[in-house]
Amino acid sequence: MVPFRKMHGLGNDFVVLDARAGDLDLTPDRIVGIADRHFGVGCDQFIVMEPGTRGADVFMRIYNPDGSEGGACGNATRCIASLVAGESGADRVVVRTISGDLPVERLPDGLWRADMGAPRLAWQEVPLARETDTLHLPIGLGPVSDPAACSMGNPHATFFVPDIEAVDVASLGPTLERDAIFPDRANIGFAQVMGPEWIRLRMWERGAGMTLACGSGACATLVNAVRRGLAGRRARVSMERGDLVIEWREADGHVLMTGPVATAFTGTLDLGAFGP
Ligand SMILES: N[C@@H](CCC[C@H](N)C(=O)O)C(=O)O
């Protein structure tokens, strides 16, 4: 039996397992089974905490419910940082991912701010399948077209739309995620700029589907909005169940994401029940 924790950031929810003391014998079948909302615990991402080494307090491995591995998860970064900080009493921890080290700090108001690093803006870095201006991808579907793309450690495309409520995210998302221009698939954001400091965002996540929030998606949206001249470098990004504050810092080009963390419940899992 293995203990787990169910956490979320604005409803973007995670099953968190702690493998820092030793391997947990997780297999693709087990990860997909536990992440399933009908046959398992259910989550948007399956997170495994592994030992941190050489300057990192913890290594965070990120799986989507389809079993694919992700390079970034902003909401989980805050959650995992809060867990590790809670153990040591520190106010600042470094969360390592396959895409890089992310320093996270606890703010006096109880929110957590993660330095998500610098966005990657070149077409090869997103990545895209061929040389393309990442500010204007030549793709579209139904009423949406002309997205901007960047990587926040994972690939994102943002469609700017005049009315976010009118977008059928569930029907557009699956096709756009797998457009041939995205060799690794992509997370798809639909954003309505309400003003220079306020953006509304709805997400279709690669390997996960519609989610209530996406931290890296909020970062990518602000970055793409700034590049398009649609927003200032600091804005509130409102998703289905709450807001993140995102700042694309001028001094070093890093993107700062501020938001809450929460634990919904804890429990134990019989890993063998989910496959060999
Ligand atoms: N929900 C996350 C992003 C999760 C990873 C994504 N589905 C991918 O495959 O890149 C966030 O809060 O950033």
Automatic annotation (TrEMBL):
It is found in: Cytoplasm. Substrate binds at residues 12, 45, 64, 74-75, 154, 187, 205-206, 215-216. InterPro entries: DAP_epimerase_AS (IPR018510), DAP_epimerase_DapF (IPR001653). It catalyses: (2S,6S)-2,6-diaminopimelate = meso-2,6-diaminopimelate. Coiled coil: none annotated. It is an enzyme of class 5 (isomerase). Belongs to the diaminopimelate epimerase family. This is Diaminopimelate epimerase. It comes from Roseomonas nitratireducens. The lineage of its organism: Bacteria, Pseudomonadati, Pseudomonadota, Alphaproteobacteria, Acetobacterales.
